Structure formats: structure tokens, C-alpha cells
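Figure 6 in text form: structure in, sequence out.
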């Protein structure tokens, strides 16, 4: 097997493992936050959480797959490691930005919902 094929396989393994680990972590730990955002409606929060997880997996798996192709060639172990670190690092960066965007969007929803609640006296 060529060094490029091994590099591609390692890239897919690392990137998809990180994607699924992060997705599962966000799914499990984001539930409480979503329940609060949706005013205690656990079934709505769970539905949104599952839909977001599916979208997250689709977008990130597509990104990982699209980033697979490269014009660079791994000719030895060093270039393979450099290529892997660049590609996996970019995937991690995109995952982080995606997460921050979601947090921002949901905090906006949370603030909006809080502004619509009647004041407690």
C-alpha cells in the first residue's frame, strides 16, 4: 500500500473519530442547555438536539471527505505526519468554529426568550 493511501486512511480515521466524539459530547452535554432555551420543553429540546446532531454529522463528514484530496504527496513519514497534522488541524478548527457559532446562535435565542417572559414581581 502506498504512503498516500495510508495517509488518507489515517486522515479519515482521525478526522471522523474526532467528529463523532465531539458530536456525541455536544449531544449529551448540550441537552440541559437546550431544555433551558426551550423553557423546559424536554421533548422539543431533544428533537432539536437530535436534528442538530444529524446536521452536524452530515456537514462535518462532507467537509472531511471534501478535504481528503490534496495536490501534495506524502513521500516519507515526515511529510505524512505534516500532511495529517494540517488536515486534521483544519477539521478541528472548523469543528470549533461550528461549535462557537451554535453557542452564539442559541445564546441569542435564549436572550430573546428571556426578553419575552413577563417580569416576576
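Output sequence:
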Amino acid at each position: 500500500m502506498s504512503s498516500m493511501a495510508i495517509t488518507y486512511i489515517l486522515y479519515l480515521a482521525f478526522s471522523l473519530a474526532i467528529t463523532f466524539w465531539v458530536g456525541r459530547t455536544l449531544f449529551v452535554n448540550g441537552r440541559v442547555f437546550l431544555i433551558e432555551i426551550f423553557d423546559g420543553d424536554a421533548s422539543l429540546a431533544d428533537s432539536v438536539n437530535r436534528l442538530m446532531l444529524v446536521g452536524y454529522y452530515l456537514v462535518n463528514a462532507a467537509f472531511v471527505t471534501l478535504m481528503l484530496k490534496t495536490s501534495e504527496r506524502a513521500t516519507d513519514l515526515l511529510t505524512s505526519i505534516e500532511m495529517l497534522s494540517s488536515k486534521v488541524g483544519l477539521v478541528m478548527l472548523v469543528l470549533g468554529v461550528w461549535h462557537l457559532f451554535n453557542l452564539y446562535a442559541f445564546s441569542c435565542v435564549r436572550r430573546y426568550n428571556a426578553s419575552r417572559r413577563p417580569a416576576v414581581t
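Caption detail: The chain has one domain: 3-116.
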